[in-house]
Design goal:
Strand content: under 5%
Number of strands: 0
Structural class: mainly alpha
Shape: extended
Order of helices and strands: HH
């Protein structure tokens, strides 16, 4: 990310050498992702169920672009997004 100074890690999950390797990766992708989250955060991932659609209510589409302690950073990103 270009707007961060946070530490980062690069995780090499596997080496794909055949179609069978790719099939295994695709089959185990959620397990692999959950293991990475658990190893890096100590927390478990719980899969979210899509909300039930209520025909009487409009659908909402939410977009969150950031959360800042410093108001200047929030205003700077707001200006960039408006451009």
């Amino acid at each position: 990310m270009c707007h961060t100074s946070a530490p980062a890690i690069l995780i090499e999950v596997c080496f794909i050498d055949s179609k069978n390797d790719m099939k295994i990766l695709n089959t185990k992708m959620k397990d692999i992702a959950n293991a990475i989250v658990k190893a890096t955060t100590g927390k478990s991932v719980h899969e979210l169920r899509p909300p039930k659609k209520d025909d009487n209510k409009e659908e909402l589409y939410k977009v969150q672009t950031g959360a800042f302690k410093d108001k200047e950073n929030a205003e700077k990103l707001t200006k960039e997004l408006k451009k």
